[in-house]
Amino acid sequence: MKDLLIENLNPKTLLSWPVFILTLSWSISIILLDRVYNPSGFVLEKISAVAIAHLGLYLVIFLGVKALGLLPRLVQALLMVPLIVLAAMFRGLVVFLIFSELGMIGSDQFVYRIFGAVVNLTIPLTMSAIAVHRIRAHSETRGMLLAENSRLIELKKIAGEQIREDTQRRLADIRSTVSASLASRVSNTPAETMKAITATVTDVVRPLISQIESEATRPVPESDYSKKTRIDWPEALRGALSSKFLTPTALGVTVFVVATIFVTTYHTFWQSVYLLGLIGLGSWFLLSVLKKLLARLENKLPGALVRSFAVLGMLLSGLVLGVASLVVTTQTDRPFSIFFLGIFYFPAVSILYSLALSTQAQAREANQRLADLTRELAWEVTRVNEEHRQMRKAIAGLLHGPLQSGLTSSLLRLEVALEGGDKEFERAEKQVRQQLESLIDSVRISERTDIRSLAAVVEEINSTWVGIAKVSSHLVGVVAEDLAKDPVLMTTLSEIYSELSFNSIKHGKANKIDFVLSKVSEDTVSLTCSDNGTQLPDSGRIGLGTKLLDECALQWKREPIPGGKGTATEVTLPFSPAD
């Protein structure tokens, strides 16, 4: 109940136009249909009086909400229903004063108008506010779902082939830039030729390396979601007119409570017992029968036909109650005191309850779908960023390694050849030009076939730190063959193993490090690195290990092992084995 009040019955929804219009329409319908407790005729006067009283009702609610705004949220929610009751009493008072002034009723209706307004408005106003809030929440969630789904589609376009195409295009630009740099500095003198190579290294290759290494992760498509959503009433009603959202018990209690003031005012004790029993138990029985019939029809008939049957069933149920009430009411001077209200009130309250329940279920389902989509989106973002990071690293490695080393090597060979004379230099220069053309053309990234196993990675780390620390690795729920099918993950794990081992040994003074890789789901793995070192205080600087984990992990955390036995780092990574 507390969650229901806090999450659904809030001032913003209560004061919204949809709730205002719904409850005003409700009040006008009741005042026009009730020809027993209201004089016949005076249609314009009745509508005007109800409209004025409704404005008064909302004025009291508005002032009350302003006053409650100073209190804690839970207290506000708990006092919202008493505020609605107070506002309904004020509304009844206004209607009584206007009707009395116009000579439409006598002073004997004072108590009836006050309490009639309370029972007649509190439940519809509360249920309308809850239903509208849930419908709006569902509409907003659907809007977010559509926007996030668009982002996911865009991300999937970026991933895989597009990243590789962008990489190859970038490598082609690099080859073209380096070739143009060398060509623009071509000279017949040995000094100018060597100067051209030196300038290409310092002015082109090294700046490219710095630029690539300092690049941020690939930008993620922005969400185009806007919170400005409109309520789709037809859709909300389609969801509500279902057997699983009909509430016979709640409806029976509600109509019993609401009918009490009408029935007991103008009927004898036994007449009231019959009518209240008919209204309460009859409503429960008829809606229970309708619920079972709809449950059977929903698997056999089209949805539109089932919904039409539901509305027809509610109207017929109200008609049955109205006809059954004539057994008693025809013996009074108000023979139709229940008849017309039964036809209207029964389906109206049934739909209100169904709206509140169905929109709650729809919102819960939409929130779950949004949570799943958000998780998938986070997976794609992390995966795209990691693929992009690895491609950047590979390009930087090509520039820093083969290309820069090749250019430097060529320069050294020319310097040696220059000492042997012009002819020797000319022969060497021709060879160097051929080698440079071949070198520039080799600046490419092919499909990776040299994926190292985790066992090989651990063996290499142990050979590096032999006699200083021992590193071990275990797999839980995942086999090495499946891991090998995901080269992106294997490259990531290789870097994480090396970086975390270095940090544990160098900074944490650990001599024992254990990696455990386990499968969390079909597309997620978890890596835990435990060591027996110490966790150093945060220096405020972002190290290479932290930067790596921030870029490649879905989430990660580092915390001391209880009992001061070391430090544990837990990393969650995307996993996508190839078919």
Can you walk through the features of this model?
- 70% of the residues lie in helices and 7% in strands.
- It has 579 residues and is an alpha+beta fold.
- Among the domains are: 157 residues, no CATH class; 120 residues, no CATH class; 121 residues, Histidine kinase-like ATPase, C-terminal domain (Heat Shock Protein 90), CATH 3.30.565.
- Strand 2 and strand 3 form a beta hairpin.
- It starts with a helix and ends in a 5-residue tail after the last strand.
Give a summary of the structure in a few sentences:
32% of the residues are buried. By secondary structure, the protein is α+β, with helices and mostly antiparallel strands.
Multimeric organization: single chain
Compressed to H and E, one letter per element, the order equals: HHHHHHHHHHHHHHHEHHEEHEE
Q: From the alpha-carbon coordinates, what is the Rg to the nearest angstrom?
A: 39 Å
**What structural class results from the helix and strand content?**
alpha+beta
| Main beta sheet strand tally, sense and closure | 5 strands, mixed
Strand fraction band?
A: 5-15%
Low-confidence stretches: none
Give helix % range: over 70%
Widest sheet: strand order? Answer: 1-2-3-5-4
Distance between the termini: 50 Å
In DSSP terms, counting alpha (H) and pi (I) runs of 4 or more, how many helices?
18
Mean of residue pLDDT values: 79
Count of beta strands: 5
Overall geometry: elongated
